[in-house]
Design goal:
The complex is a heterodimer of chains A (204) and B (51). Chain A has a single domain, classed as Immunoglobulins (Immunoglobulin-like), CATH 2.60.40. In chain A, a hairpin with a 5-residue loop joins strand 12 and strand 13. Helix content of chain A is 15%, strand content 41%. Chain A contains three helices and 13 strands, in the order αβαββαββββββββββ. Chain A has 204 residues and is mainly β. In chain A, the strands form four sheets. In chain A, strands 6, 9, 10, 12 and 13 form a five-stranded antiparallel beta sheet that branches. In chain A, strands 4-5-11 form a three-stranded antiparallel beta sheet, with no helix packed on it. Chain B has one domain. Chain B is 45% helix and 14% strand. Chain B contains two helices and one strand. Classes of the chains: A mainly beta (204), B alpha+beta (51). Chains A and B meet through strand 1, helix 2, strand 2, helix 3 and strand 4 of A and strand 1 of B. Strand 1 of chain A pairs parallel with strand 1 of chain B.
């Protein structure tokens, strides 16, 4: 995933939801709820690309790159019907604020009534002690919370009307130098993600 | 005074320029659908390496 992230840069918004019982400090209630919503089950790792494209199980680690890259290219070929921009963001020891600007670019959005604004706050390079390796391991882009509830906040978008909003989240206990956010617009009915934006670090 | 300094063709060009400037400057930009740059959301569900 690191190679893909470097290759696609800001054209790929990426977040990891941890499940399991050995390291509850990595698990978030929002991540568990989304795993259930997607029907992940006990298979791991499982990746979803823009909500609907589920990557096939990969057994050979080296084949991840080509499989995932094909999935990303397939998702990128879909029409983008809006732009999401992070206008500005602030973070301190207790709270983060993100100002969002959404510009619908397609009138097909006007009739969509089940859209949700999904915002996932993540923390990068979270240290945890691995009993298997007997060493500290760092987990990348680990989901900490999903704002609103696990399925986002209902939103109505209309072509020709920009949508501005402010997102806030409690971040007490996070490493604020490594905290970021992914924001997407997703259909609650079909699970399709129509557009996303990522800010890898709130504090620059 | 300004008009006296202009020749006929320059005056005509100025009138056309300001007419177009007023027309496009005061009217709303037309709504044209366009395609935005697609940013793909990748959600990975995983377990720690101990599992």
């Amino acid at each position: 995933m690191d190679s893909l992230q470097k290759f696609y840069g800001d054209s790929m918004a990426y977040v990891v939801y941890y499940t399991g019982v050995t390291h509850p400090e990595l698990v978030s209630p929002g991540g568990n709820a989304r795993a259930e919503w997607y029907g992940v089950g006990f298979y791991s790792p499982v990746a979803f690309f823009d909500g609907i494209a589920r990557a096939p199980q990969v057994t050979v680690p080296d084949s991840f790159y080509s499989v995932y890259r094909d999935m990303i290219e397939g998702a990128r070929a879909q029409k983008a019907m809006m732009e999401i921009r992070v206008d500005s963001c602030r973070i301190d020891a207790s709270r983060m604020r993100v100002w969002l600007h959404i510009t619908p670019t397609d009138s097909s959005l006007d009739t969509m009534s089940s859209l949700r604004l999904l915002a996932v706050v993540f923390e990068d390079s979270v240290p945890y002690y691995s009993y298997l390796r007997e060493d500290t391991v760092f987990s990348p882009l680990t989901a900490r919370q999903v704002l609103g509830d696990s399925f986002g906040v209902p939103v109505r978008l209309k072509f020709g009307q920009v949508f501005d909003t402010l997102l806030t989240a409690e971040v007490a206990g996070y490493n604020i130098n490594r905290t970021g956010i992914v924001v997407s617009v997703q259909s609650f009915a079909t699970k399709v993600v129509y557009q996303s934006v990522v800010r890898w670090r709130i504090r620059n | 005074m300004i008009f006296k300094m202009m020749s006929g063709s320059k005056l005509l060009a100025a009138v056309v320029f300001f007419t177009l400037f007023f027309f496009f400057g005061c009217s709303e930009a037309p709504l044209i659908e366009r395609e935005a740059n697609r940013i793909v959301l990748v959600e990975l569900f995983s377990t720690p390496i101990d599992e």
